[in-house]
Amino acid sequence: MGIAFILASFSTQIWQLVLTQGIMFGSAASFPYILGVTVPLQWIKRRRGLALAVVYLGSGLGGMWISLLTRTCIETVGRQWSNRILGCIMIALGVGLSPLIIARRAAKQRPEKLIDFSVVTEWRFMYIAAAGFFAMGPNTIPYLLMPTYVADVLKEHSKLGSSLVTLINVSGIFGRFLAGMLADRFGPVNILIIWVFLAAFSQLGIWLPFTSVPAVIASAALFGVAGASIVGMLLNAISQQFGVSRITYISGIIYMTYSISSLVVAQTTSLMLDTVGHGTDYTWPIVYTGMLLLVAFVILIAFKFKISRQFTFIV
């Protein structure tokens, strides 16, 4: 990841950025991300929701300080040196912390297959994968749209847009801890249903009808609490349904659908904004984001009825 950023600092054409910050960084980032969130679950039997909240705390804190650092570096030393500085930080942290990620496995326990794709035929996986596809795809849209929305629609300073991204990350810290503690008490699927609904409400119930700075701030805060926790809650649901022995490669398949969904949703949202919204009307991109989350909400409701035959908050 660090090398990708350093090489990107020397890029002068679009295809070079696609190769470095796109393919190289994207491929490399998947390895520490999957291992970082799945390996700790192998060591913890109780309070897995809270454990995941602590793990994802790094994501919230990292997103908060990295956005501030990146903006400061760009304003002071420019884009090229900003990439080099970030790249060196990634290399130092990666090399220093990687030895701490140790998988737990019994001495004589060996997996029959490196990757068991038979799980994709299980109905529980199909429900979770479908819900993840529709819920995680829109997960990055507020990060992308809110900064430009502030400048194009509200005519506010661009610093407010970057502050909204920071707000999403900061509120995500609180949301992850709250979701983790509630999941340990009421079950990850139940809390996931509520969090997906709140994420949809932040788009359709707050951001869409109210064109004002307080509304977009409230939407960003609520989406940070709910939307930022969806990925971790899905992982918690996977560990509950399938156990931790298969969680690494099952999570890998889920995150593969996440990558596809994020790419499709980001491209369609951008196309919708440029064609239907003419670059300034954000109505349909917001509706699109919220409706995708509502589809995930309906799938999770169906999944809850399927596994319990009745909707209850006691698991």
What's the SSE blueprint?
Blueprint: H1 2-8, H2 14-43, H3 48-97, H4 123-136, H5 141-152, H6 158-186, H7 188-207, H8 213-226, H9 230-242, H10 247-275, H11 283-308
Helix pairs in contact: 1-2, 1-3, 2-3, 2-10, 3-6, 4-9, 4-10, 4-11, 5-6, 6-7, 6-8, 7-8, 7-9, 7-11, 10-11
**Global morphology:** globular
Assembly state (oligomeric) = single chain
Count helical runs. 11
- Element-level helix/strand string: HHHHHHHHHHH
How confident is the prediction overall: mean pLDDT?
A: 81
Termini distance?
40 Å
Residue ranges: pLDDT <50 for 5 or more in a row?
310-315
Structural class: mainly alpha
**Would you report the number of β strands?**
0
> Helical residue percent?
over 70%
Largest sheet: none
Radius of gyration: 20 Å
**DSSP strand content:** under 5%
Question: Can you walk me through this structure?
Answer:
There is one protein chain. The chain is mainly alpha-helical and 315 residues long. The chain is built from eleven helices and no strands. It has helices at residues 2-8, 14-43, 48-97, 123-136, 141-152, 158-186, 188-207, 213-226, 230-242, 247-275, 283-308. It starts with a helix and ends in a 7-residue tail after the last helix. Residues 310-315 have low confidence and may be disordered.
